[in-house]
Amino acid sequence: MSTTTIHLDDELKRRVANAAEQCGKTVDEFILDAIAQHVAQVEHDDEFHHLADRRWARLTAGGESVAWEQAKAYLEARARGEQPNRPAGRRRVR
């Protein structure tokens, strides 16, 4: 395992130590967990944005969509246990 040095001002160092103690972890464990969680969140966000970009590209390339009002009414009816007809997709108007 490699070593990385970080510089914390006294206030942040105190806050990290307090938070680590509350979690029952050492400061090193707390910092490693915080970094790992942040990296995972950034990776998750990146995957989400790539998925959104792919879906938008597919939609703008001629895919069909459903107006939000129709989709919402359909989902609300399903949530009430009803069996509504699925709203018809429509081509995007440019």
From TrEMBL:
<protein>
    <submittedName>
        <fullName>CopG family transcriptional regulator</fullName>
    </submittedName>
</protein>
<keyword id="KW-1277">Toxin-antitoxin system</keyword>
<dbReference type="InterPro" id="IPR014795">
    <property type="entry name" value="TacA_1-like"/>
</dbReference>
<dbReference type="InterPro" id="IPR010985">
    <property type="entry name" value="Ribbon_hlx_hlx"/>
</dbReference>
<dbReference type="Pfam" id="PF08681">
    <property type="entry name" value="TacA1"/>
</dbReference>
<dbReference type="GO" id="GO:0006355">
    <property type="term" value="P:regulation of DNA-templated transcription"/>
</dbReference>
<comment type="similarity">
    <text>Belongs to the TacA antitoxin family.</text>
</comment>
